[in-house]
Specification:
CATH architecture of the largest domain: Alpha-Beta Complex
CATH topology of the largest domain: Phosphatidylethanolamine-binding Protein
Largest sheet: 5 strands, antiparallel
Oligomer: single chain
Distance between the termini: 109 Å
Order of helices and strands: HHEEEEEHHEEHE
Strand content: 15-25%
Radius of gyration: 31 Å
Number of domains: 2
Number of helices: 5
CATH superfamily of the largest domain: PEBP-like
Length: 211
């Protein structure tokens, strides 16, 4: 049987690889082009569907600012107006069925101090007017308020001891339930626990107040 020269045999072994190599390069090039086109399309479409960030604002307060005396407590050695602040929120998470609001002082001795807790605000409500607690506006909305650490139902403004100002964190929560199962006058710490059990998201303002 006649054998091909070694050089010819080697040439035949390598020739079939050339078309395959060119095809492989062509496939890789097309894949890169498609990936680039896909990225451009996604970049142009994504902003249309992007949801805003759940946020909290106030006509009375600015995040990082100082709380006005009209919102401070009005008993004992404190002589404020004890008016709950105006609040408004926007872009809650999808699936929100109700809202809750709390105000907490993390700088108070011990475990901190609860100033306010509200639950059961309807999903259609996106704002509370100033003095909503004392005016009865919250009750009209069908929501309930906790007993704060002053042992008073509803809002109790800042009243830290003289010295270094305290921080006050106001938080609005988006909840997955329409009724968190809380009753008027229950402890604020209980409100906090039940609120977190059905929380979808939250937004905060952090303020300071000192005497």
């Amino acid at each position: 049987m006649h054998r091909l020269p070694a050089a010819s045999s080697s040439l035949l072994r390598h020739r079939p690889l050339r078309p395959s190599l060119r095809a492989s390069r062509r496939v890789r090039t097309m894949a890169v082009e498609l990936a680039v086109m896909f990225g451009i399309v996604c970049a142009s479409v994504a902003p249309v569907h992007a949801a805003g960030k759940f946020s909290l604002a106030s006509a009375d307060l600015k995040d990082g600012g100082v709380i006005d005396a009209k919102h401070a407590f009005d008993r004992g050695s404190c002589h404020g107006g004890n008016r709950s602040p105006q609040l408004s929120w926007s872009d809650p998470p999808e699936g929100t069925r109700s809202f809750a609001v709390t105000m907490f002082d993390p700088d108070a001795p011990g475990r901190g101090w609860w100033h306010w807790a509200v639950a059961g605000l309807p999903a259609s409500v996106h704002a509370l007017p100033e003095n909503a607690s004392a005016s009865g506006e919250i009750a009209k909305l069908g929501a309930v308020e906790a007993r704060n650490d002053f042992d008073v139902d509803g809002y109790g403004g800042p009243c830290p001891p003289p010295g270094k100002p305290h921080r006050y964190v106001i938080t609005v929560y988006a909840l997955s339930v329409a009724d968190p199962g809380l009753a008027q006058g229950r402890p604020a710490a209980l409100f906090d626990r039940e609120i977190h059990a059905s929380m979808l998201g939250s937004a905060t303002l952090t303020l300071t107040y000192g005497r």
